[in-house]
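quick one, 174 residues, struct below
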Amino acid sequence: MSKPDYDIIQVKDDESLKACVQCINKGFISVARKFNLTIKSAPNNGVFLNFGKYKSEVCKGMDVYAIFEGETVLATVGLKWLPQNTVEVLRLAVLPNFKGQGLGKMLMGFVEDITYKKMTRDPHIESFTIQLGCIAEDEVLIGFYENLGYSVQAVKTFKKLPHDVCFMRKTVNL
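---
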């Protein structure tokens, strides 16, 4: 039996953004449990995200993309366009029942494709960088990104977080 062919759609309306928040909340549950995160210790973790905060991130320039099945968001990712030919990946999430089916990999491939298309519009740009941050102790997630060609750039400790943050990136030459 073949896998379904999903489209990745840019999300702009509030109802679809709310569906993305639900996907993020559910997608981050296992990580929150694994690393004993609470709303007090890690209030910005996706498991605790609410619509108001997410809408604020969108209003500040984050683009949101999602894979839908009907009205349900199966997977989602946010992109923030930064200076110096850089895009930041934010809040990549896949619903628990759909993990391991290639949706995260599909979204990351889409991130590279859309960034490539945007960057090649300017003939002076020779390369671009995609960056992200994740829990430094999450070896599975770090391995996922490493398999896609991302490399660890730094691991930092933040006083207000119960875990270190691993910063990763991939540079693509045009």
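The chain has one domain: 8-173.
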